[in-house]
Records
---
Amino acid sequence: MVGATASPGTAAASGPEVVVVGAGPCGLALACDLVRRGVRVLVAERAPGLFPGSRGKGIQPRTREVLDDLGVGDAVREHGGPAPVGMVWKDGERLREHDMFRRAAPTGTEPYGEPWLMPQWRTQEILLARLRELGGDVAFSTALTGLDQDADGVTAHLTTGPVRAAFLVAADGGRSTVRRALGIAMTGEDVDPAPMVVADVRVAEDALDRLNWHMTTGKQGFLTLCPLPGTADFQLAARFEEGEPDTSPEGVRALVATRTHLAARDVTEVLWASDFRPRAALADRFRAGRVLLAGDAAHVHSPAGGQGLNTGVQDAYNLGWKLGQVLRHGAPDALLDSYEQERRPVAADVLGLSTRIHRGEQERGAEVQQLGLGYRTGPLSVGRAGVLHSGDRAPDGPTGGGRRLFDVFRGPHFTLLAVGAGTGLPVLPLPDGSPLRTHRTGAHEAYGEGLFLVRPDGYIGWAGEDPSELVRYLARFGIAPVTVTAS
């Protein structure tokens, strides 16, 4: 793990500064973000290995931007693919095509225009490989049995022994051990009283093509078979109007034979299967002292609309830079309060969206892409310039020399962006190791003209014209330039 000096009274110099409980997509993304900031991290995962199933297979455009910044964009592109168009079947015959998604071509400001499919196990493999490349790792077969915290830190009681750290993050799923230990309630509802089963299966090559997302409906409920890009597998999903799902290989084969034109023997392998009841729930708090909740530990979604994994990864992206500023750059601990203040309203809105989609009350439109999510009313959003408000997502765009703005933003730093010929770039003398970079670029229609401080998670924190206001704003994050002059 990356070495650095811990704060007094929190963690030994060789110990972790942050314990992340859970090695799902959220926990792994957070660990990658922290380790690249020089923060020592222990990822504790109770299972002996990564989750084996495809469950969260949809990667939304905004999450692709996040994964690109974390250094795995090429791997996601290589191992994933666009969602296939749906094919509705009836009585063993193809009835019609049905495309569930809004598809948009990439633009200069939004480089990813449509949902990307990749099984969850592959997403986790890619993130784990990146974490190891950065110098971190996961402690598998390591469960949390309890925790204690005080003003100086957290003691995580693990099956391998107690560990002291400055902070602990719960990324351990909807049945979070951490959340239960803290006594934080989840408020929510059953989205659908009918149980569902999801499974990864392989189908005989001559029995079903991989060109469509195959869908059947009937008195017993719907069943879908979606080809998973980069694999030989299909994800099966089925709703049960009556009875309980049988997730054994024999039960999954019988389910396919009952609801489709395929025979049981056409399902050559059942790789993984699970049952659940769709539920929407939101934790009453995302922070309790030095412990923070992220991903499914903080909010549980219906799978409709592909929002759960994406919202969790973006929780990690919001939290990672804030922990980094506190632990590495002297930002006040109160900065971490903004995590709940920004992410809990987003999670509430996304929960409502996925519930409406599940119930057929709303189509999968532009909202599911999560490109429009932002923090305009959040506590870290100050000012506006050009056509953008603070709290908005910072758009991509060309910036000369074959580079793009996302190339400038990529990495664990803030970017002060001066846009337009008439905008001067303040000279900010900064100490070595400062997390702020500056960049000047020509006019951009998506920005207008002005000064924009882009946060490490790609949102505009401050926008305006007065450099002295900018200096006061930067001080909130432990960034203190000595003097300010105009360029």
---
Amino acid sequence: MTERFWTGLVDDAAIFPPGDAELAPAARAYDERAGEAAELVGSFVVRDTDLPALPAGFSGPVSVVVGGGAGQLAGPAALCAKRGLTLAGLEVALRDLDDLAGNARRVVAAVDAARAEGVLAEEVPVLVELPPEQPTYSWLAAADEVAAAELRLKLRTGGTEAHQFPDAPTLAAWIDAALDRETPFKCTAGLHRARRHTGEDGFEHHGFLNVLAATRRAFDGAAADEVVATLEDRALDPDAAPGPAELAGARRWFTSFGSCSVSEPLEDLRVLGLL
């Protein structure tokens, strides 16, 4: 039986903006999820500073957003091990905009050191967030460093301000860069709904189904303008999009997206008849 393309697609980021849920109730809601909702959700996303406050007995895997630089990667991994938490991934943003490739190399060195010390298991993915801009030489050089170390990319697809929402050509270029380097990527923010739409905040939001379909079409060799058109399709027809088996294949590259809402992606999948 073909794996359902939506299994584990959403990482529960309820405590992040614009949801801003309190940690303890959000963790309980994660643990109490059942049925299709539980199957849709992968990890519970927390900040490194949240780890000590996670309720005792929390059972879910956690993806940890590291607030500091490369030197802060080992600490959260060690704390997860101490607390008996399953670490689904570490996520770190490059902050040295004047030397992105050098910053990426520092992250790689920190990851290598943490793995050598036995603090960070080999199978735990590390995701590196590049600046939300049209890829430049420096951006692509940093992506090269990430790919060479077999880390993953993290792409910011939204936020609370207009500039945090990349246009379709920019997002298509990010997807192309990831696929060209055979590097899996995760998206974060703005992908609450399946199809592209104008949100209540007035911003143009990408749809997670659009991103999945665009990833599959790019992988299959579609031209850049076709990938952009797929991202911009506000009435994306599931019957005309790549089928469930092809979308499941796209998950090799587009692994998941963080969302402060789980109910909205679930509702859209049901309305579209995809559950």
